[in-house]
Design brief:
Blueprint lengths: L7 H9 L2 H21 L2 H8 L4 H29 L3 H13 L1 H6 L3 H29 L5 H29 L4 H7 L1 H14 L16 H4 L4 H16 L4 H9 L9 H21 L4 H21 L3 H29 L5 H29 L2 H24 L1
Helix pairs in contact: 2-8, 2-10, 4-7, 4-17, 5-7, 5-10, 7-17, 8-14, 8-16, 12-16, 12-17, 12-18, 14-16, 15-16, 15-18, 17-18
Length: about 400
């Protein structure tokens, strides 16, 4: 949302955010352009060029995200222990950029899996230090706005990337591999912006000692672990967006327009992430989480029963709204509940648990799609979300 259309409260929040938040947002924007140029085409590339099965797609997506989450666990600890945020972020973004040519070179789905693994290791290395940097840069009363803004700029890249991929598919006559090569360019720009425009924020570091011990993690509060549990439940109910692309393709979306699914989802996500993040600084965040759960349930049901492409895109838009309601909010809740000297570690643990949940969700989604069909995949997501909503409400009430 632009400043011209934002509420007075949102404009006030924007004015108080430091330049480093904007810089990190643009770093995420360019890397997401790079990644989504590939991700928007990857499911179709796998099925039409490499003849991969839905189960293989679920494996690639699940392993990729689980890898990122495991990497975040250790990069978060390293950031807190060494007192370094930016250096680890540079390594992570650099690895993410340099992994892009591997997709262009992959002759089989197994090597796409290896490329996805490498790309997600980079995401894992940069994720927790970057999120901790945002928490270090702003006070608690601005964290919803800060994480919402970074997520909004990140998501602008997430819909710009597929749009660029669609244009290049038309210009280059469906040359997947050349487009994958071109995705390297915005990835390198992302690293350059990080090097030049982001300064290391001040924060407390852990004493230098032996590698991560359970005793460090168990000092985190019960409120923090509730946030981790909520994030895991949401992730179990929300499998990879690759299945959104396959669902649209099943009702007639042309091959070259496959990235349009991510464009629709991420436009809604980008438009909603900042204003809803800023709103969460002023209202009960539990209410926002509940509305996010409910929106995901409606999205899954629409996607399960959609008879045509218009209905599928409506479900995709609701999926994006759910993301805008929950993702920045969960990051703000982690930052709120984590002690300063364990902030990156806290993000690492949160993302590790969520990544394992995404691996299970994507494998299950692929298996259900293969054995029963898309209806079963999305209805199972709706059912699990409903169970998670009721369970979360009971825990938060207590």
């Amino acid at each position: 949302m632009s400043e011209g259309t934002a509420s007075p409260e949102s404009r006030s929040s924007l004015a108080r955010l430091p330049g480093g938040i904007w810089a990190l947002g643009f770093v995420s924007l360019f890397m997401d352009i790079s990644s989504e140029m590939i991700h928007g085409l990857l499911p179709v590339f796998l099925t039409s060029v490499l003849r991969a099965s839905p189960e293989m797609i679920g494996l690639i997506e699940g392993v990729g995200e689980a890898t990122a989450s495991i990497s975040k666990l250790f990069s978060g600890w390293a950031s807190d222990r060494l007192g370094k945020r930016k250096a680890l972020a540079v390594i992570g973004y650099g690895l993410g950029a340099l992994s892009k040519p591997l997709f262009a070179l992959a002759p089989t789905s197994s090597l796409v899996l290896a490329a996805r693994f490498s790309d997600r290791v980079g995401k894992g290395i940069r994720g927790a230090p970057r999120d901790a940097m945002v928490g270090d840069m702003v006070p608690a009363g601005l964290r919803g706005a800060a994480y919402g803004l970074r997520q909004a700029l990140d998501t602008v890249g997430a819909f710009a990337g597929p749009l660029i991929a669609i244009a290049l598919m038309a210009i280059l006559h469906d040359n997947f591999r050349l487009i994958f090569w071109l995705a390297l360019i915005p990835g390198l720009i992302s690293v350059l912006v990080l090097l030049v425009a982001v300064r290391e924020p001040p924060h407390e570091a852990l004493p230098i000692r032996a590698p991560l011990k359970f005793s460090d993690v168990k000092t985190l509060s019960v409120a923090y672990w509730i946030v981790v549990a909520i994030g895991a439940v949401l992730t179990l109910a929300r499998f990879s967006e690759a299945f959104l692309i396959l669902r649209a393709q099943s009702v007639g979306l042309p091959l070259a327009l496959a990235p349009l699914v991510l464009v629709i989802m991420n436009i809604v996500y980008a438009l909603s992430a900042y204003p809803l993040g800023a709103l969460s600084d002023r209202i009960d965040r539990k209410l926002m989480l509940a509305l996010g759960f409910a929106t995901l349930i409606v999205s899954d049901i629409v996607l399960a029963v959609a008879p045509n492409l218009t209905a599928v895109m409506a479900g995709v838009a609701l999926w994006g709204l759910h993301m805008g309601m929950t993702q920045g909010l969960l990051a703000a809740l982690v930052a709120d509940e984590a002690p300063t000297n364990l902030r990156a570690t806290s993000f690492g643990v949160f993302n590790f648990v969520s990544g394992i949940a995404l691996l299970l969700a994507s494998l299950t989604a692929g298996a259900l799609w293969e054995m029963v069909g898309s209806y079963a995949t999305f209805m199972a997501g709706a059912a699990f979300t409903a169970i998670g909503l009721v369970g979360t409400a009971m825990v938060l009430r207590r």
